Amino acid sequence: MNENKERTEKIIGFMKSNHYIPLTREELAVVLEVPKEDKEEFSKLLESLLRENKIRLTKKKRFIVNKESTTYIGRIEGSKRGFSFFIEQNRQMDDVYVPFENLQGAIHQDEVEIKLVKRAEPGRKSVGMVTKIIKRKRNTITGIVEKDGHFFFVRPLDKKTNIIDIARLPSKVKVGDIVEAKVTDTKKNGKFLVGEIVNTIGNSSNTSSYIKAIIKDNEYTQTFPDNIIKEANNISELKISSSDIKGRSDYREIVTITIDGQDAKDLDDAITISKKDDGQYLLGVHIADVSHYVKEGTSLDKEALQRGTSVYLVDSVIPMLPKQLSNGICSLNPNVDRLAFSVMMSIDKTGSVTDFDITESVINVNERMTYKNVQLILDGNQKMAKQYKSISNEIKLMNELCDVLTNKRKLRGSIDFNFKESKVLVDDKQEPIAITSYDRFQSNKIIEEFMILCNETVAENFDLLQMPFMYRVHEKPDATKIENLMSLAKGLGLSIKHRKTIHPQILRELIDSVKGTKVEHLINTITLRSMKKAQYSPYNEGHFGLASTYYCHFTSPIRRYPDLLIHRLMKDYLKGKDISNIYEKMMNQLQEIAKTCSDTERKAELAERNVIDLYKTIFMKRHIGDTFMGIVSGVTQYGLYVELENTVEGFVSVEQLQGYFKFDKEGYRLYKERSNFFYTLGDQVQVKVTSVNVPLREIDMSMIKKITN
């Protein structure tokens, strides 16, 4: 008995220590040096502690102490239906449901303390109540002024934030204005927000006002502070000197090409390619050496980290670096010397890198090509081929190698989704004039394949060196989600090979098997939803989606901070910097930077999506009453989401459907009782646009008919 008590105290004490990180059963046994003959008893002891609620298991089956306190720290994740969820800061517990009346004035993304008012039951989440707002995520919230009777309120543009009652409307503010409001109080025991208007952005009749509001709501600014501009100007006036070039590999005499979009101005990658005597390809990927100009710890560097990434908003950009750098001395513009970081790779006929060299370099781009023009050459356009005759051999080799690399990725199970991307065309007044799907050429794939290979090569090299590094990791999906996906596939009559472990090859084969079929959209959508989001980490955990053991982001330092950081780490190694005495400190810093960059990436993706959705709703407002063909892209108990051929998505509420429909969650369908009729993902339908809510970026439709094959 005393022996068990001592073991219990040892386990609990170890888990409470500051240096403890959550471990599995097997890892605990190793760290606590449990003898082989005592492992069964050790397992029983852990089970006993679990039953007594002294310890608990995380979602990843790792053990942690079950805190005696019933309060937890984390953030609020809002929803457009009023209720929210609580996400614990270390993700060591399941999400907690927080009903509207329990928010106590907290809003989407606020850092809060909560207490559990009801423990989880089978099939249901725990219920929590906010006890303290630790930190507001945003000081102000953008929205549109509306009126209900004699009362004014601001309806936030962020659908996950609740409305704000306005005690006094400023004299110059009118209903319909887009404003910034500050939450000052709550009423009715914290159920409702009260605030004041602190700034008017513009009127909701102007598209530009919405764009400004989205930028402000995400706390972005398209301008830089004066000290940052001054620093950038000083750098942009520099000329590449002999001392800058000294010690660098000189590739200026090799034919070098950039391939980007027509409007791109921040060119951060260039390509050289040739065939060696032994038949192998020699591929050079040359990346702008931004780290030569943006030094660690400078004001410019701190601003770049805070921004994390450039944000592309249809016809404008919020750059990570001032344009003096991003479009100027850092950009690999043609016919000028540029400092670069080069990866020269020998690649055999199977797509394997047999040798490589990573070096600081100097290059001079011969041709600034666009995806469209390269594609015309590949398609046999004689005029374009004649115009770029000097690089025809390089274009041919690029295409050859692209096919080799694509086939290699396919064989190892790398997943390629086939979703339409939206392309919005706007006029000089920022008004949308057309919405189409984005054309993805073979020329796009060429650059994608080369960048993937380069990123893998760099990541593998530095993983083997065991140096501090920043990886791009993509965890395996949860087994339950994959099991549900496979059950759905089998229910559709698809033949799936059984594997004991989750491997991307399974998903690759599934996606390939439905190409061109009615269920292609369904399978692609559910597969994507089954997967986790990629993120940054100083620890290499592989990239599941690419079926890659090693991966990083090295190729876009002008627009992504992790790439810039990696360049610095690589230079430290190449210059023989001794980091043994600061290794642990560097790893801790990288952990913080990884989280910051992962967060800024998510934030940028949301802002970009919001702007595209805004343009779509403004464009579709002109088409109220028009009919369109589309496919069912989402199914909920409340109705159907329908994606039109131009990539616009609208909602058909269940009330708009003729008859009484029930929701089949497992089958992703709405079905009519006592009938074989149903709607499911991938169905072709004809719909009519009935209403458009621009502020909330919502399009409502009514069902005309389902198209049966």
**Structure class:** alpha+beta
Major sheet attributes: 5 strands, antiparallel
Percentage of residues in strands:
25-35%
- Alpha plus pi helix count: 17
Distance between the termini: 72 Å
Q: Report mean pLDDT, rounded to a whole number.
A: 90
- Give the strand order of the largest sheet, numbering strands 1, 2, ... along the chain: 5-4-3-6-7
Give the beta-strand count. 33
- Please state the overall shape, judged from the principal axes of the Cα atoms: globular
Could you characterize what this model shows?
There is one protein chain. With 709 residues, the chain is α+β, with helices and mostly antiparallel strands. β32 (684-693) and β33 form a beta hairpin.
Concise structural overview:
With 709 residues, the chain is of the alpha+beta class. Helix content is 31%, strand content 28%. Strand 27 (639-644) and strand 28 (649-653) form a beta hairpin.
